[in-house]
Amino acid sequence: MRQAKIGLWGGLAWLALVAGCGGELLETPTPVASGSRTGGATGGTSSAVAAPSTSVVSGAVPDGAAYQLVSLGAADLDEGVRIALRGGVLNRDTLLVVLLDENQNLLQRALVSAGSPLEHTLRYPTETLYLGVAAAPGRTVGSFAFDVQRTPGVGAPAPRPTAVWLNFAGGVGVSVHRRAGITFPEFNARLCGPAYAGATTAMKAAIVQAVRADYAGYNVTVLTSDDGPPPNTPHATVHFGGSDPRLLGLADNVDRYNVDEWQTAIVYCESFADFAAMQLTVAEMGQMLGNVASHELGHLLGLYHTQVPSDIMDTTGTAWDLVADQAFTRAALETSVFPIGFEDSPARLRETVGARAVKHETARPQSAAEAQRKRELRAVLRAALPTRCGNCLHPDD
């Protein structure tokens, strides 16, 4: 979810973030094995393990530390991993648990509690699979103990192409993220500010172009309400309309690996009128809305928040970063997702929907005047709207 806050500059909105700051951003750490493992053999190759095996992983998050990592050894393609809390007093706990590969890329994330394990099937082998443990939001964590079950040869799901329908035709009773339904009219560029009156066709074209460019390398078909009604086959829907006092966009949830293809997101077009002080061109405003649409669709395809302003899934940049042509990259996780690690968005999208060859077009060169204007605006906005860390929505809701 992308969030805006009315602040300085007479109501200029920016991407403020609701939850509190976590620890400082850490680069890829030197792997640290902590805690202990007992029980059956784990890891290795599928041919070496003919049946499920279970081990106990226990340890503690030291006072003052934000997380703990435990090495689970090597893991193979198609291996299933299930992380469940042990019984006893610990069954009342809820812990934030992640699986990271050898390069600290996030594979899976879950709030683990009694009866609610983390489950994952390896899409590729890794020399070291890490179990990360941190406190769930609003809780603390000390000692922990998990039953770790590993099953070779489960078979990872193949990438599954999908589609998204961009709805500019208005909506009635549209509910996103279990919120009360809202009704909004057909998209009109004037909703983004009086300066854009009469530019609806051009702004929609810029939005669609931005989303299609972002997903050009992946098997995501981008359709619009101008093309016709939504398809009967599974697809995501991104609506354009409505307003929110804090938000630019919202998605139903973070659906890792796109398990539910019938999900919804919304871009609150009227919220963008707060950017009037930036005096954006129609193309720039369209790019901004397109970046937010791609961000929300990224959640529906399973991507978490990051903290690199050039990345589409970033939540820490200024309003001007949203005007830039953002892209899916490997970027540091936003700390409320997990205190360390990376979201390798291109890899996750390839595993989820598959990749396709694209013809890269040469970008239109900027004029000297355009480049100077962007430098000046970026400098002013960064000074007036400092970046904050945090997360604009609990990632597990």
What would the keywords be for this entry?
Collagenase (Catalytic Domain), 397 residues, Jelly Rolls, five-stranded mixed beta sheet, disordered C terminus, alpha+beta
Q: State the CATH architecture of the largest domain.
A: 3-Layer(aba) Sandwich
What is the CATH level 1 assignment of the largest domain? Answer: Alpha Beta
Task: Give the neighbour order of strands across the main sheet.
Answer: 3-4-11-6-9
Mean pLDDT: 80
Rg over C-alpha atoms, rounded to the nearest angstrom: 22 Å
Counted beta strands? 20
Helix content: 10-25%
Overall 3D shape: elongated
Q: Work out the helix count.
A: 6
Given helix and strand content, the structural type is alpha+beta
What is the element string, with H for helices and E for strands? EHEEEEEEEEEEEEEHEEEEHHEEHH
Strand coverage percent: 15-25%
Number of spatially distinct domains: 2
The CATH topology of the largest domain comes to: Collagenase (Catalytic Domain)
Name the CATH superfamily classification of the largest domain.
Answer: Collagenase (Catalytic Domain)
Termini Cα gap: 11 Å
Low-confidence stretches are 4-34, 40-49, 382-397
Q: Please give the largest β-sheet.
A: 5 strands, antiparallel
Layout of strands and helices, then pairs:
Elements: E1 5-6, H1 8-11, E2 13-14, E3 36-39, E4 53-60, E5 67-71, E6 80-85, E7 94-100, E8 106-113, E9 118-121, E10 130-135, E11 143-151, E12 162-167, E13 171-174, E14 182-184, H2 200-214, E15 220-224, E16 236-240, E17 249-251, E18 264-267, H3 282-300, H4 319-323, E19 330-332, E20 342-344, H5 345-352, H6 368-384
Parallel strand pairs: 12-15, 12-16, 16-18
Antiparallel strand pairs: 1-2, 3-4, 4-11, 5-10, 6-9, 6-11, 7-8, 7-10, 13-14, 17-18, 19-20
Helix pairs in contact: 2-3
